[in-house]
TrEMBL record:
Source species, domain of life: Eukaryota
UniProt name for this protein: dTCF
Family label: Belongs to the TCF/LEF family.
DNA-binding region: 394-462
Protein keywords: Activator, Developmental protein, DNA-binding, Nucleus, Segmentation polarity protein, Transcription, Transcription regulation, Wnt signaling pathway
All residue ranges annotated as the HMG box domain in the record: 394-462
Name of one Pfam family that matches: HMG_box
Subcellular localization, as worded in the UniProt entry: Nucleus
Length: 620
DNA sequence: GCACCTTTGAAGTTT
DNA sequence: AAACTTCAAAGGTGC
């Protein structure tokens, strides 16, 4: 199942990548208003990318059939083209295939439709006609890829995504009007310099982690010259040599290297803001960033769809892959520096272990946490590092309710005027109990998957590792709870003795419903005493069942036993859950109370409990 | 800047 | 084994 998800994620992200890259190559905008042909063509491009990715990354040929639903793709030309090109095995081949198709699209769409030449400004149209051997933006000097030795072995999906993130994270490339970022030279010619070649070419990381990765960029003569120069300078200063080495790599040579370096850098507030493209008006573009492991800084407030759910898993899988890639890279860099500079240790390139939870809201925070540690290590490299290295904080997987809260919080906030999370959580807690078993089971299943994935990602992790992470807070809480005689103790008595042994409950915990007052003129039961709140507990107050089928009116003061002082309305309304006894008098014997009923800040929403959703009952 | 609040559930610790 | 504690998210609030 997990493999399947990974495959789907790879397919998806690769399709998106090639979608954008193809648009970049074509020099056109991602315009939804384009004709269907154009959109369809782009989709076909993505499909090709999917096929390529599957064929490239998968060692199992059977996956091919799962990659693209060819039956739905009724474009015979596309199929024919795809069939004709055979099985791509490298990035270059994939790009060639796409460009072949792109040239067809270009001729069909943009030429025939008198597409404005301004939209293709800077694009050498003749390039599209050279479908046999178009130049590659990653291989600008390679007019063709005649022999296998010239081929760059294809990267993994993670590398492609990283590359894409690197492209899109460049502020200079971002079109402020929401257009896709473009290369200054979309079509490269023979005059492209070696430096350009180095900058545009991706580093190739060997995916076989048992072997030392082939850091191809180091083999570049110009780079080696710089490295050697650096080496000559830095041999007298052993401590700074790797830093200098890294800096040379980062600044001048390789885009991917600089991307990794960014990951290691301390992200400033400004940089994170500049990377936040959420409000730039191009949802599609932002979505493409949302799946990237680097750019995903902020979480959207939309409810979690199935796609989002997969994206969340995808993100974590990609993050895992990214870590592996980074480890491979750092190992390679260290090994290379070993060879060239003569070092024996890899002190200045700490291997980051990203936290489990990389959802956008906490990602930056966690990255800051990590990078602070990294920074401290780097700045104190003369000290004994081994003692200061802290284990990265791997957070607990979210349980079902947490997942539910995360999904529904925005919705509740939108519905209510409340902004205080404590109050929101009360509402969410109540709504959680209102959910049907089927609805809840969906979140329990999600939580189970979360735990499973967490176990796979961090096999040695235990919840115990996080104990004491916020020790001060917990200590204070603990002290306070021992002196608290309110609802908290009630909860303890109920938990300790159970509902069957209420005679053993302490006095404040003992159920005493005599405080409930009579029915008012409207046929509603009005609870007058604060003691009711202390007895039954806030979460159980509202839906006290009488027998009227009307509404229970709760005094505000009784519904707030804790600090939820944000309650604003005077009464909480709740439909009665039991059947009426017919005489308008509240029946207190054998009544049922829904646990988690409305109360406290929930009243600010004036929410009415759903009469058909009593998931749990507590007999009093 | 950090703890608190508030919810449920999972997992760890204590009794 | 049951009871109890801690920590996951979230963001306003208060110190």
């Amino acid at each position: 199942m997990l493999d399947k998800v990974k495959q789907l994620c790879n397919q998806w992200s690769t399709a998106e990548l090639f979608y954008h890259r193809s648009i970049q190559r074509l020099g056109v905008h991602s315009d939804k208003s384009s004709s269907k042909t154009s959109i369809y063509s782009i989709m076909a491009l993505a499909a090709i990318a999917l096929t390529g990715e599957c064929l490239i990354t998968s060692k199992n040929s059977h996956i091919k059939s799962d990659c693209v639903d060819w039956e739905k793709n009724d474009n015979k030309i596309d199929q024919q083209l795809i069939t004709n090109v055979g099985k791509p095995k490298t990035l270059a081949e994939v790009e060639n295939i796409i460009l072949q198709f792109a040239s067809t699209v270009y001729e069909q769409q943009y030429c025939c439709d008198n597409y404005s030449s301004s939209n293709l400004k800077g694009i050498d149209k003749s390039e599209f006609k050279k479908s046999s051997s178009p130049s590659c933006i990653w291989h600008p000097n390679a007019k063709s890829y005649g022999t296998p030795n010239e081929l760059e072995q294809c990267s993994t999906a993670a590398e492609i995504i990283l590359e894409f993130a690197s492209l899109t994270s460049s502020a200079a490339l971002i079109n402020m009007h929401g257009n896709l970022p473009k290369y200054s030279n979309v079509v490269l010619d023979d005059s492209a310099t070696v430096q350009d070649s180095i900058i545009r070419s991706p580093a190739v990381l060997n995916n076989n982690y048992n072997q030392l990765p082939d850091v191809s960029f180091v083999k570049d003569s110009k780079l080696i010259d710089q490295v050697l120069t650096t080496s000559a300078i830095s041999t007298s200063n052993r401590d700074n040599s790797i830093d200098t080495f890294s800096r040379n790599l980062e600044i001048s040579q390789n885009r991917r290297k600089s991307k990794f370096a960014r990951r290691i850098e301390i992200p400033t507030l400004e940089s994170s803001k500049s990377n936040n493209l959420k409000n730039r008006g191009d949802e599609k573009y932002f979505h493409s960033l949302k799946i990237s492991p680097i750019m995903n800084f902020e979480e959207t407030a939309s409810p979690i769809s199935k796609v989002d759910s997969v994206s969340a898993i995808h993100e974590r899988v990609i993050n895992n892959i990214f870590k592996s890639q980074l480890n491979a890279f750092t190992n390679a860099a260290c090994t290379k520096s070993d060879t060239i500079v003569g070092l024996s240790e890899c002190e200045s390139l700490p291997i980051l272990d990203a936290p489990y939870d990389l959802t956008i809201g906490t990602k930056l925070k966690n990255m800051n946490l990590e990078t602070k540690n990294t920074s401290s290590i780097q700045t104190n490299d003369t000290k004994d590092i081994s003692n200061d290295k802290k284990k990265p904080h791997i957070k607990k997987p979210l349980n079902a309710f947490m997942l539910y809260m995360k999904e529904m919080r925005a919705k509740v906030v939108a519905e209510c005027t409340l902004k205080e999370s404590a109050a929101i959580n009360q509402i969410l807690g109540r709504r959680w109990h209102e959910l049907s078993r089927e609805e809840q089971s969906k979140y329990y299943e999600k939580a189970r998957q979360e735990r499973q994935l967490h176990m796979e990602l961090y096999p040695g992790w235990s919840a115990r590792d996080n104990y004491g992470y916020v020790s001060k807070k917990k200590k204070r809480k603990k002290d306070r709870s021992t002196t608290d005689s309110g609802g908290n103790n009630m909860k303890k008595c109920r938990a300790r003795f159970g509902l069957d042994q209420q005679n053993q409950w302490c006095k404040p915990c003992s159920p005493n419903l005599s405080v409930i007052s009579t029915v008012n003129n409207n046929g509603n039961v009005v609870i007058n005493s604060n003691a009711a709140a202390n007895t039954i507990g806030v979460s159980m107050l509202a839906p006290i069942v009488s027998g009227i089928g009307g509404t229970v009116m709760l005094p505000n003061s009784s519904s707030s036993s804790s600090s939820s002082s944000s309650t604003s309305s005077s009464h909480t309304h709740a439909h009665l859950m039991a059947s009426s006894n017919g005489n308008g008098v509240a029946s207190l014997n054998g009544i049922s109370v829904t646990a988690g009923g409305g109360g406290g800040a929930a009243s600010a929403c004036s929410q009415q409990l759903s009469p058909q959703a009593p998931p749990t009952y507590v007999n009093l």
